């Protein structure tokens, strides 16, 4: 190969390198931006799930606690309007957190929350019937308290599944 051909090849490679460098840089920048957007989207979704889990866990535990308190007060015949209002507020908050979570959490979390919801809603309905004097055969506050114990392992299971979904394993 002559020096002229070698010089021409070198010149062509140099010109191509000069022309292609900005294109390669632009492509690398676009790829990095796309990765950054994807990373930010994952982080945002994680934060949404974590906030939903925190709110749902807090609301379900609060509803459970106030339901248990209500049943004790009904049993002891000291249930007052203030207690009813607090329980109703907790029930509504729980319902709202449950509805919000349905839009963003995975199905296995929803399944665990549905199992808990079935118990809590059933006991809440029973407590309201007992409070109004419309209880069904065999329904008592003491019996409802025993049935409410079914919610405790469901609360724990739901919390465990939520933590696992967030990457927290014990």
From TrEMBL:
Transmembrane segments: 6-24
Keywords: Membrane, Transmembrane, Transmembrane helix
Descriptive protein name: Ribosome-associated translation inhibitor RaiA
